[in-house]
């Protein structure tokens, strides 16, 4: 098979993207997690809007988002950890276009390394140029590393201050009602509500002390899910930083959040990101996790499904972790990751340093200096399809093993622009990206 670069043409990457991105000391410093880094995101998110506070329900209808009736159904894609602005992020564009979503949701880390205005240009606006659809998001930890501590995210997604940028890049702007929000149709025949939760800089919603927690967000989520319960709707709740990850409990303060999730039978899918791979947990496993880690029982049987999906365009994270008490289907499978990774990254993982800056740097030195080391490989999204009459919700994980496979039907030596609005993809290859669907 010809080299990927002879088959798929990528746009020139913006300054300081691509080769050596994580070798730049400025990027490493901007994206640091703890050193000389305070976290008061439970306060900051309420300072962004100033005197113009969001409406209490923080809710927008699907028809309002799409500017059309939704009785005939609609579909959307959820991506996590997208914003490096390099080949791996651009690699999902052909699939996004073929799947024809009505809108996108990005589950955090929209703009690496630290959510600055330039990071949004390179990691959000340019890659999704001319999709002509709305895009909503929740902030990830990297957005809270920004110079103005997340105000940049709020300005881009929750106000019209960046309206010129949305228009310049061919995206339809529909401002969110805050960094956490709800999509819900007034018509009860539309069976789905989607709630985006803002877990802040380091998933500390409970706070070290009760007075430090985000009680307002907890109360809002409890109230909105209570409404979904009474109306008999299904809810997808998404947030960036997971509590169940790599088959173990993470070091986060999200007990109140999980208590709320467990208390409402409307919650049928919990979707996180942050990890740059996919981990699919069965309802029984998530029920076990809730019982053992938070001492709560799920209100519905079966419990919600739980998915960690953060391979929407950033550096691929390893799946070669030791088995824990909460088994998951991993993508890519551990043996595939070992084939993908070279000796240096394997050694870093074995030393327990998989999440460190060292892992990124080692990866850079392992790859050819002539190409971007973030290959368009082992990428993922979640497709959600909604129908009102008869009411139905269908969720399909989408896995892209290798971008080249989409164009395997073309003659040798063909060149395809990754931003082609009508990509000449192979239908069988697209079908192979669809994983078993489920009704949440």
Secondary structure blueprint with pairings:
Elements: H1 4-7, E1 8-9, H2 25-30, H3 41-44, E2 59-60, H4 62-66, E3 74-79, H5 87-90, H6 93-99, E4 103-107, H7 117-125, E5 135-138, H8 151-158, H9 163-168, E6 181-184, E7 192-196, H10 215-231, E8 234-238, E9 244-245, E10 248-249, H11 255-263, E11 267-272, E12 278-281, H12 283-294, E13 305-309, E14 329-331, H13 334-340, H14 343-350, H15 357-366, E15 377-387, E16 392-402, E17 416-417, H16 427-433
Parallel strand pairs: 1-17, 2-6, 3-4, 4-5, 7-8, 8-11, 11-13
Antiparallel strand pairs: 3-15, 6-7, 9-10, 12-13, 12-14, 15-16
Helix pairs in contact: 10-11, 14-15
Brief description of this entry?
This protein has 440 residues and is of the alpha/beta class. The longest helix is centred in the middle third of the chain and has 17 residues.
Tally of contiguous helical segments: 16
| Beta-strand fraction estimate | 15-25%
Helix content estimate: 25-40%
Sheet bearing the most strands, described? Answer: 8 strands, mixed
CATH class label: Alpha Beta
CATH architecture: 4-Layer Sandwich
**N-to-C CA distance:** 40 Å
Total count of strands: 17
Kindly name the structural category: alpha/beta
Calculate the mean pLDDT score and round it: 91
CATH superfamily: Metallo-dependent phosphatases
């Amino acid at each position: 098979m010809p080299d990927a670069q002879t088959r798929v043409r990528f746009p020139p990457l913006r300054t300081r993207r691509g080769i050596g991105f994580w070798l730049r000391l400025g990027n490493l410093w901007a994206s640091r997690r703890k050193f000389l880094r305070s976290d008061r995101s439970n306060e900051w998110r309420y300072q962004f809007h100033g005197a113009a506070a969001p409406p209490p329900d923080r809710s927008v209808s699907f028809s309002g988002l799409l500017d059309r009736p939704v009785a005939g159904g609609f579909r959307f894609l959820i991506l996590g950890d997208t914003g490096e602005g390099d080949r791996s992020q651009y690699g999902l564009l052909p699939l996004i276009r073929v799947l024809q979503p009505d809108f996108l949701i990005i589950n955090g880390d929209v703009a690496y390394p630290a959510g600055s205005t330039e990071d949004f240009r390179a990691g959000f606006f340019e890659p999704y140029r001319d999709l002509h659809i709305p895009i909503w998001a929740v902030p990830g930890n990297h957005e809270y590393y920004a110079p103005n501590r997340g105000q940049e995210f709020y300005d881009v997604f929750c106000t019209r201050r960046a309206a010129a940028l949305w228009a310049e890049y061919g995206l339809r702007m529909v401002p969110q009602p805050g960094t956490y929000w709800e999509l819900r149709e007034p018509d009860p025949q539309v069976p789905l509500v989607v709630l985006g939760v803002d877990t802040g800089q380091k998933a500390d919603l409970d706070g070290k002390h009760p007075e430090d927690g985000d009680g307002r967000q907890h109360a809002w989520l409890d109230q909105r899910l209570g409404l979904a319960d009474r109306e008999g709707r299904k809810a997808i709740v998404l947030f960036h930083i997971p509590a169940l990850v790599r088959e173990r409990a993470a070091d986060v303060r999200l007990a109140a959040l999980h208590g709320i999730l467990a208390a409402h039978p409307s919650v049928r899918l919990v979707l996180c990101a942050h990890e740059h791979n996919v981990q699919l947990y069965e309802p029984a496993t998530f029920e076990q996790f809730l019982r053992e880690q938070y001492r709560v029982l799920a209100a519905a049987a079966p419990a919600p499904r739980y998915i960690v999906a953060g391979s929407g365009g950033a550096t691929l994270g390893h799946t070669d972790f030791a088995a824990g008490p909460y088994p998951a289907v991993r993508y890519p499978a551990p043996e595939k990751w070992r084939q993908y990774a070279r000796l240096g990254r394997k050694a870093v993982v074995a030393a327990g340093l998989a999440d460190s800056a060292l892992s990124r740097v080692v990866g850079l030195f392992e790859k050819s200096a002539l190409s971007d080391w973030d290959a368009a490989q082992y990428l993922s999204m979640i497709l959600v399809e909604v129908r009102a009459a008869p009411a139905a919700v269908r969720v399909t994980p989408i896995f892209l093993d290798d971008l080249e496979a989409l164009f395997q039907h073309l003659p040798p030596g063909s060149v395809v622009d990754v931003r082609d609005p009508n990509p000449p993809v192979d239908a069988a290859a697209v079908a192979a990206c669809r994983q078993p669907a489920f009704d949440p």
